[in-house]
Amino acid sequence: MEKKVEKKVLVASLIGSSIEWFDYFLYGTVAALVFNTAFFHSDDPTVSLLLAYASFALSFFIRPLGGVIFSHIGDKIGRKKTLVLTLTLMGGSTVLMGFLPTYEQIGVMAPILLILLRLIQGIGLGGEWGGALLLAVEYAPKEKRGLFGSVPQMGVTIGLLLGTLALSLMTLLPEEAFMSWGWRVPFILSALLVIFGLWIRKGIEETPSFKRVQEKGEVAKVPFFETMRTHWKEVLIAIGAKVVETAPFYIFGTFIVSYATGQLGFSRTATLNAVTIATVVTTVLIPIMGNLSDKIGRKRLYVGGTVLMILYAFPYFWLLHQGSVALLIVATILGLGIIWAPITAVLGTMFSEIFKSNVRYTGISLGYQIGAAVAGGTAPLVATALLAAFNESYVPVALYIILTAVISLIAVSAIRERKNEELDQEEVA
């Protein structure tokens, strides 16, 4: 593949992925800072926070539906057209959130409208990730597949970085200004990013893998049924492997905002800055880890990161409880910035390598989105509930992180390394 085409594909994959996750994480952070009081009114602050996190979790359960809908389109008519649809759906719902009236203004309709838009976000993201990943992986030379597959994964952290930076700037406003209109600005301005993303994707051709499927007449009639008939084991493997990549991420990147500010007395700015710094570190490390996986293998890197996650669960909370801003930053860098990086860098490529091309979009989307629904969106909710149930002790939350890692280690034990093999050969995991 020409260098010019390689660069264009990677930019298109990264830009769209970054925009989608910017929109998504913006909601997650604002849920802890604004939505818990402005939209989910309750006399008990803990109940308000739980309701806000529940709304965050809801979209994770709709994501598998979005994955089924858009992966069906992606495996039937192509990756490129699907990616335009997902970006439009996700971006539109995010912009509208910035214009929503609060509970004080329209009562119970405020949280209803917010949840409706959140569900639309979830449907869009359900199809976005698989398409962005396949755009990169299916264009990649086999010796660079790990690197290419890690690039759209950078969109996760770049999106979080953009969302956190935007809110960090807004929190510099006086409290009253931030709560009334400051939080709305990043939502509304995301319209510019969406337009740019659509323009970039317009110039990309369909992937070589999908073209081959069309030429051979192997397009699945109903990709979902074909996937469940021939690749149900691989879907289960992907669901399990996703657990340790998603739950600790939302503990380190989202739950920490309410935990550090509410229980440990850190300022919002210090906490958001810690997440921002860690996100920069992991964004740099992801392509390095992806490239490394082309040399030593996806599975070895993934298992190494997962074992480190088990070992780090308790030290993470110990560092936070020292009450030092410096240690808050160190704790977040170690967890989100370093240990999480090899896991997420290889996840998408590893998924792609266990599904045949005619059901690959559907297979990876189901595994990724169901895993995210089970363990990702629920993570801040579960962590908050565990704190409330066990007298603010972090021990159950640390054990929860360890449990997610053990589940994923069991799942990936069934995966065979395929780093030097052709992507579209018949044999799968």
User: SSE string, helix = H, strand = E?
Assistant: HHHHHHHHHHHHHHHHH
Report the helical percentage. over 70%
Q: Which spans of ≥5 residues are poorly predicted at pLDDT below 50?
A: none
What is the arithmetic mean of pLDDT? 86
Total DSSP E strands: 0
Major sheet: size, sense and barrel closure? none
Strand content: under 5%
User: How many whole angstroms does the radius of gyration measure?
Assistant: 20 Å
Terminal CA distance? 27 Å
Total helical segments: 17
Structural class: mainly alpha
Shape: globular
Overall description:
- This protein is an all-alpha fold.
- Helices cover 81% and strands 0% of the residues.
- It has helices at residues 3-38, 45-76, 79-97, 103-106, 109-137, 145-170, 175-182, 184-202, 208-215, 223-230, 232-262, 268-296, 298-320, 325-352, 360-376, 379-389, 395-412.
- Helix 11 (232-262) runs antiparallel to helix 12 (268-296) and helix 11 (232-262) packs parallel to helix 15 (360-376).
- The chain is globular, with a radius of gyration of 20 Å.
- The relative contact order is 0.15.
Architecture blueprint of SSEs:
Layout lengths: L2 H36 L6 H32 L2 H19 L5 H4 L2 H29 L7 H26 L4 H8 L1 H19 L5 H8 L7 H8 L1 H31 L5 H29 L1 H23 L4 H28 L7 H17 L2 H11 L5 H18 L17
For the structure shown, list the relevant keywords:
mainly alpha, 429 residues, single chain, 17 helices
Quick overview of this protein structure:
With 429 residues, the protein is an all-alpha fold. It is 81% helix and 0% strand.
